[in-house]
Amino acid sequence: MRKIRDVSNSLPFTGGKQRAEKKDSSAAESLQTFEKLSRERPLRLLKALGFEALLAWLFFRSFWAILFLSPLAFVFADRLKTAEEGKRREELRKAYADGLDAFCTALKAGYAPENAIGYAARELSLLYGKEAPIAAEYSRMEQGIHMRQTPEAQFATLAERCGLPEASLFAEVFAVVRKSGGNLVSIVEETGSLLRDHIHTRQEIQTALRAREMEQNMMKAAPLLMLVYLMLFSPGYLDVLYEGLMGRAVMSVCLTLYLVAWHLADKVLEAEQVA
User: Fold this and answer.
1) Per-residue pLDDT, 256
2) Run of H or E including 142
3) What is the pTM of this model?
4) Which residues touch 130 (CB under 8 Å, ≥6 apart)?
5) Cβ atoms within 10 A of the Cβ of 249, count?
6) Alpha carbon of 211 to those of 82, 205, 214, 259, 275: distances in Å?
7) Closest Cα partner for 159 from 33, 246, 11?
8) Contact 201/265 with Cβ under 8 angstroms?
9) How many alpha carbons fall within 13 Å on the CB side of residue 68?
């Protein structure tokens, strides 16, 4: 990662890193170019409503509690959306790295940048299928080349559409090298290698964090499973908690603590991902 920063700082352009970070923060919206998230909103909201209803029934055993806690469904839906977009972003990073591999391989083989884009488009179609987002983007880039658009313009458009900081950095490096007339193959290969290493490192970190995420999910499910177990095998054991003001107050506190613990666990996992 330090090498990537050194390369970006040594190039004769300014503001690239800031623009890349800005695009990373808005990557969720940019990813809508690759996936039609609007089709998933009803299913995501349905899942959130189902989980909210489960919580309301387990902690209060009341239909009115389901209605009262219904705003939580929108919070859960937003969490699901964030998780899905994060997963897509990492999948897109991997696909972008594969596209960069194919492009750099073609340059090393003696292809011109215009032809190397077409080569990468064909390789990605074989690897992911023609309907895959990254394959479709490279096919669109190839069509742009046929319409006399420059390769650097195509990479800049790809970076804007996908919203990845790695794509923005590569597009700017590629544009500078093309304008300066330097050793295109060597510089692009080195920059691409650094970016691919960075992406692969992120993937390794994500893989390591999946085990921690699974542990957290098990801890989140444990209190709910305990309540279900007591309801099934000791039906009258928890009745005192569902009757009277005191019992409902105790369950309200338990639900609040459960949601706070859930939120803190997610924040800890997010902090580890950022670190």
Assistant:
1) 94
2) helix 133-146
3) 0.68
4) 136, 139
5) 11
6) 19, 11, 5, 22, 16
7) 33
8) no
9) 11
* 207-225: pLDDT as tens digits: 878 888 888 889 999 999 9
What residue has token string 């194919």? 102
Angle 180-18-187 (CA atoms, 0-180°, nearest 5)?
Answer: 30
Residues 119, 141 contacting (CB under 8 angstroms): no
Rounded Cα distance, 89 and 182, in Å: 32
Phi, psi of 150 (to 5 degrees): -80, 150
C-beta neighbour count of 50 within 10 angstroms: 12
Residue 272 CA to its chain's centroid (Å): 15
Over the range 215-242, which residues count as b (16 or more CB within 10 Å of their CB) and which as e? eeeeeeeebeeebeeeeeeeeeebeebe
Whether the pLDDT of residue 33 is over 60: the answer is: no
The size of the chain, in residues, is 275
The residue written with tokens 């209605």 in the block is: 67
Could you read off the pLDDT of 54-79 as tens digits, one per residue? 999 999 988 888 888 888 888 888 88
In the numeric block, the tokens 């085990």 are attached to 211
